[in-house]
Amino acid sequence: MIDPFGRAITYLRISVTDRCDFRCVYCMAEDMTFLPKRDLLTLEELDRLSTAFVEKGVRKLRLTGGEPLVRRNIMHLIRSLSRHLQSGALDELTITTNGSQLERFAAELADCGVKRINVSLDTLNPDKFKEITRWGDYAKVMAGIKAAQAAGIKIKLNAVALKGFNDGEIPSMLEWAHGEGMDLTLIETMPLGEIDGDRTDQYLPLSAVRAGLSERFTLTDIPYKTGGPARYVEVKETGGRLGFITPLTHNFCESCNRVRLTCTGTLYMCLGQEDAADLRAPLRASEGNELLSNAIDEAIGRKPKGHDFIIDRETRKPAVSRHMSVTGG
Ligand code: SAM
C-alpha cells in the first residue's frame, strides 16, 4: 500500500477498546462516555480486518486503546494474530499498555511471540502517579513491568512530558529505566479531545527538555528506528537509548508509515486529522474480502500529508475532537 506521497503503509495500530482502567488527566476527562459494547467489532472481526491489512503488506501490528488488556478475551485475538508471526507475514505483533494487567498476561504474551511492548509511565513517584492517572495503582504497574521482563519481553517506557509535573523527574526516570534495561521515550502532549484542564498549562516542548538534559548527559543522535515516530539518542552516561516523539516541535509526518483502526472499524489515516473511512460496512457486507480490500485502497489513497498541531492560548479547541483512546495511542 503506497499513499499519494509515496509512503509505504506497513504499520497498523488497532484500538481494540476505547475503555480504560485509568483516567490520565491529559488523555481523558474523569467522567467519560464510552461506546456502547454493541458498536464494537467482535474479536473475530478485528482478526479478519487485521489479516486483510497483513495480506496487503502491513508488517507490524500494535494493539492499543483505551487499555488493550482490559478488553474481554483479548488474548484470544493476540493468540490468533500470532499465526502471522509464525508464517513470516508479520515482523512484529505488539501492544501499548498502561501495565495494570501485565502481571496477569505477560507470560501468555511472550508465548504468543510478543517480544517488545510499550508501557506508559509518566512518573516514578506513587503519589504523583495517582494524581496523573486518577485511578491507577503504581504497585500493580511495577509488578507488571517485572513480570514482563521475567517473561523475556523487552519494554520501552513512554512518558508524556508535562510541564510542572514530571519535568524535574526526567533525569531520574532516564537513569532508572536504563538501569533496568529499558528504553525511555518522551512524548509531547497533543491536542486530542476535550479534557478537564487547559493543555497550555501542561505543554512542554521536548526541544527544551533535550536542551536541559544535554547539560547533564551526553546525547548523541543515532539512526535507531523501531518503525514508529520516535527519534533516538544514545545517552553516554547510562549506555541506554532515549527517544523523542515530537508532533509539535518537529512535525514527523514525512516518514509516516501508519494508519489507525478504531474498535468500531473506522480507519483514520492520520492521528491529527478528522478524515476517516468506515471499514465495518464493507467488512460486514460480504464474506469475501474484495469490498474490504477496495475500501482500504481507497482510504490509503486519501492519506493526508500530515497534521498541524498547535497548542497556544489563542487555540483553545483541540485539533481533533476525539480522544487518543479512540484513535489509539
Ligand atoms: N492504555 C494504553 C497506555 O496507557 O499506553 C494505550 C492507550 S494510551 C491512549 C497510549 C499513549 O497515549 C499513552 O502513552 C498515553 O500517555 C498517550 N497519550 C494519551 N493522550 C495523549 C495526548 N493528548 N498527548 C500525548 N500523548 C497522549
* Range of helix content: 25-40%
- Spatial shape: globular
Question: What small molecules are bound in this structure?
Answer: S-adenosylmethionine
Largest sheet: 12 strands, mixed
What can you tell me about this protein's structure?
There is one protein chain. The protein has 329 residues and is an alpha/beta fold. It is built from twelve helices and twelve strands. It has a twelve-stranded mixed β-sheet with strand order 7-8-9-6-5-4-3-2-1-10-11-12. Helix 4 packs parallel to helix 6. The longest helix is centred in the N-terminal third of the chain and has 13 residues. It is globular. The protein starts with 10 loop residues before the first strand and ends with a helix. Its cofactor is [4Fe-4S] cluster.
Q: What does this entry show, briefly?
A:
With 329 residues, the protein is α/β, with parallel strands linked by helices.
Features:
single chain, about 325 residues, alpha/beta, 12 strands, about 30% helix, binds S-adenosylmethionine, MoCo_biosynth_MoaA/MoaC
Give the topology, please.
Blueprint (H helix, E strand, L loop, with lengths): L10 E5 L27 H13 L4 E5 L9 H8 L1 H5 L4 E6 L4 H10 L4 E5 L5 H8 L4 H13 L3 E8 L8 H10 L3 E6 L10 H4 L3 H9 L4 E4 L8 E5 L4 E6 L12 E4 L4 E3 L7 E3 L1 H6 L4 H11 L23 H4 L2
Parallel strand pairs: 1-2, 1-10, 2-3, 3-4, 4-5, 5-6, 6-9
Antiparallel strand pairs: 7-8, 8-9, 10-11, 11-12
Helix pairs in contact: 1-2, 4-6
